[in-house]
Amino acid sequence: MTHQPATGALLLTATLLATATPALAQERAYPTKVVRFITSLATGSSADAFGRAITDQLTRRLNQSFIMDPRPGAGGNLAADTVAKAAADGHTLLMSSVASNAINASYYSSLSYDFRKDFAPVIKFGSIPNGLFVGPELPANNLKDLSALIKAAPGKYTCASSGTGGLLHLTCEMYKKAAGLDVLHVPYKGATYQPDLIGGRVTLVFDNIPVYVPLVKSGRLKILAITSATRSPVLPFVPTAIEQGLRNFDSRGIFGLLAPAGTPPEVIQFLNREIAIVLKDPAMKERLIAQGIEPETSTPEGLRDLIQSEITKWARVIKEADIKPE
């Protein structure tokens, strides 16, 4: 008497452990159809370009379509909810802005999904560091100068962001707390604050570095600090906030891949291995770093630990600043 389920499981394990090449595509048990990276990231953004670079290479490598599938809206919750409720077969995945999803876990009193329980971490992709930017006429060239300027006139200066409760807003709140400052938060709808920042109508903003590199190099804006633990390869002359005295000040756009909870471990390991191979390719690394994107990889367990630490960090900021959804 044969036992077909056991045979099928052995076949799945054997094929997923094999090194994938186009020639083997017909024999694989996964993927068997288009794999969608559901994302809330804006089309055309640095993060979107990051995801497309990965999906394009996976498509070529595995001879199966991997595509970005934008689902903007609800602060990233629409994309997360879509994947949380998807079939746990590895064909519908969440390209997570980890910090943003971690913020949502505390910012919203109720969600239709649980960021800790409803997803199976696959791999950390990497990060895009943030920077602190000010207008060219502001008489400050480092964090010490800026903090002194703000302390001398409490409530006079402003910090712009793309919306209340987002990563950029919370980074501003973290700075205010760490430096003991009174700064007025000015939320905009999306990244429409650049003209006001350049013109000096708002004082400062924390934002992803890549978009600002041309503005800094042309002298239209100044960057006073990098807000990750290490300096940015595209602006290596700019010291970090930590170097300038703000202990443990770390705010980055961190990106990872998550599958619905219950996705087979073999599929998780297959995706982890294949994406790591793509990101470790020298040409790919060079291209991403030139764009201000820092490729990094992790085990699934490493991503799970990162998610927990991000939830803890941003929950503390939300509580201390008493930030409520609008």
Largest sheet geometry: 10 strands, mixed
* First and last CA, distance: 63 Å
Structural class designation:
alpha/beta
Uncertain spans, ≥5 residues at pLDDT below 50? Answer: 1-26
Would you kindly provide a written description of the structure presented here, covering whatever features stand out?
- The protein is of the alpha/beta class.
- It folds into two domains: 4-128 and 252-321, D-Maltodextrin-Binding Protein, domain 2 (3-Layer(aba) Sandwich); 129-226, Periplasmic binding protein-like II (D-Maltodextrin-Binding Protein, domain 2, 3-Layer(aba) Sandwich), CATH 3.40.190.
- It contains eleven helices and ten strands.
- The chain has helices spanning 4-17, 46-62, 77-84, 98-107, 143-151, 167-179, 194-198, 213-217, 265-279, 282-290, 300-321, and strands spanning 35-39, 66-70, 92-97, 119-134, 158-161, 184-187, 204-208, 222-226, 252-260, 294-295.
- Strands 1, 2, 3, 4, 5, 6, 7, 8, 9 and 10 form a ten-stranded mixed β-sheet that branches.
- Helix 6 (167-179) links the parallel strand 5 (158-161) and strand 6.
- 41% of the residues are buried.
- Residues 1-26 have low confidence and may be disordered.
